[in-house]
Write a structure and sequence with these properties.
- The chain is α+β, with helices and mostly antiparallel strands.
- It has 12 helices and 13 strands.
- The protein has a domain at about 5-45 and about 95-185 and about 265-360.
- The strands form 3 sheets. It has an 8-stranded mixed sheet, with helices on both faces.
- A hairpin with a 2-residue loop joins strand 3 and strand 4 (about 75-80).
- The termini are close together.
- It binds flavin-adenine dinucleotide (FAD) and iron/sulfur cluster (3 copies).
- One iron/sulfur cluster (SF4) binds next to helix 7 and helix 8.
């Protein structure tokens, strides 16, 4: 277990959570997450309200075969071949409010970031950010597992426009919230030293006042994962504690992606770079995978397991009992990874819980 390596796939906020857990191992206990595959993300939905919305529109969620967002339309392809489609603005009621203050569209601090915007239908846009990420994509190309093409200028411009729009709109939302004393502490400037000193005083009650009660929690599960006394539970879309905090512990406040984030974790100059820093960007199609877009995520995770580069991967599959409800998993089985392909648009934690159970 000590030498175990894990690759994760997740939204930008989940990637930030994993980065913070690993940045402060003396406080949080760290994690074996070694490779981070980030997804582009404009927003996420509440499962309960999405289900209710579909019911109101006479759509049985059990009959939905595919869910996608294309050209500002939310599309549900049903098993009988018909489609229920609404403009994304009509889905505002079930978009999680914390997404309004999110300043990252393309998971800027991942090894590889992947989304659909920028590439033709059936292809994934893949942003390679680190040498580790580059090695993975080159190996997959060499093995013939993926086909790649340059991103067309039109696609790249569209991607940059959308990313810029998210960053600038949400920057205004952050300023508005700060002006009415609803803190968005993760975007405040703080030095590493200030952060380390400040968190010494912070326990769950501070997490509650600065993040949870402010509607800024992204439900990533990092607080639950790092709590040494296991008193944090996540229920009804909210972390809470059952019991008292250990004296001197400030792990949850340190790990949370919505408390203070220093320059070393998320450089501030990324706010002015629509899609972050990168080495290369390509359109990718995974030849043997039926994924949400080009199947790039599934091809990468399967390759990492097959080659023994990681021992396990965090994925988000579908709950067996509830159609389209995301279920985070930790697995070493390629078949399970392939089965989990496809986007579940409602909010999910990452596989921290499964990892914690394994650690216990
Ligand atoms: C909430 C959300 C919002 C998104 N918004 C955008 C967007 O605005 N623009 C854009 O271009 N792309 C967006 N994406 C990404 C896009 O939908 C595809 O996931 C991406 O293009 C990868 O496609 P693929 O065919 O390579 O992946 P696949 O090979 O199909 O694999 C998809 C992977 O995503 C993981 N996954 C599925 N649901 C979730 C979830 N809820 N949380 C974390 N991981 C999950 C699965 O574990 C699976 O491994 C979003 C994804 C999510 C989860
Ligand atoms: S906070 Fe919302 S918009 Fe931002 S990465 Fe997380 S799910 Fe996506
Ligand atoms: S013991 Fe308290 S302060 Fe420490 S991680 Fe758990 S809830 Fe947070
Ligand atoms: S409070 Fe917990 S679940 Fe919510 S964002 Fe912070 S670490 Fe994640």
């Amino acid at each position: 277990m000590n030498d175990e390596k894990i690759a994760m796939v997740g939204t930008p906020c989940q990637v930030l959570a994993a980065t913070k857990v690993n940045k402060y191992p003396d406080i949080t206990g760290g994690s074996p997450i070694d490779i981070k595959i980030g997804l582009f993300c404009m927003e996420t939905f509440s499962y309960k309200y999405m289900r209710m919305f579909l019911e109101e529109n006479q759509v049985d969620i059990n009959e939905v075969k595919e869910c996608s967002i294309e050209q500002n339309q939310l599309k549900f392809l049903k098993k009988d071949g018909t489609t229920f489609e609404v403009p994304l603005v009509k889905a505002e009621g079930f978009i999680r409010k914390n997404c309004d203050i999110c300043s990252d569209y393309t998971a800027d601090i991942s090894d590889i970031s992947i989304g659909s915007i920028g590439s033709p239908k059936g292809w994934s846009t893949v942003i390679i950010r680190t040498p580790k990420g580059q090695e993975i994509i080159e190996a997959l190309e060499k093995q013939g597992q993926i086909e790649t093409r340059p991103i067309e200028e039109k696609g790249l411009n569209l991607l940059k426009r959308i990313a810029t729009s998210k960053k600038s709109t949400n920057r205004i939302n952050i300023q508005k919230r700060e002006a009415i004393s609803r803190p968005v502490v993760y975007r405040r400037e703080v030095s590493e030293e200030e952060f380390q000193n400040f968190v010494q005083e912070c326990q769950f009650e501070n997490l509650e006042s600065d993040v949870i009660s402010e509607g800024a929690c992204v439900l990533c599960g990092a607080c639950e994962f790092v709590c040494p006394t296991n008193i944090i539970k996540i229920h009804d879309r909210k972390p809470y504690i059952k019991g008292s905090c250990e004296e001197g512990c400030h792990a949850c406040y340190t790990a949370c992606p919505r408390t203070y984030v220093t320059e070393a974790v998320l450089p501030r100059n990324l706010d002015d770079k629509p899609i972050g820093d990168y080495l290369d960007i390509k359109a990718v199609n995974a030849n043997f995978i039926e994924g949400q877009d080009g199947g790039a995520v599934t091809a990468i995770l399967s390759y990492l397991l097959k080659e023994g580069i990681v021992d396990k991967v965090f994925i988000v599959s579908e709950d067996e009992e509830k159609a389209w409800k995301p279920k985070p998993r930790l697995t070493s089985d390629i078949g399970t990874v392939v089965k989990a392909a496809g986007t579940k648009y409602s909010v999910a934690s990452i596989g921290f819980k499964a990892l914690k159970e394994e650690k216990a």
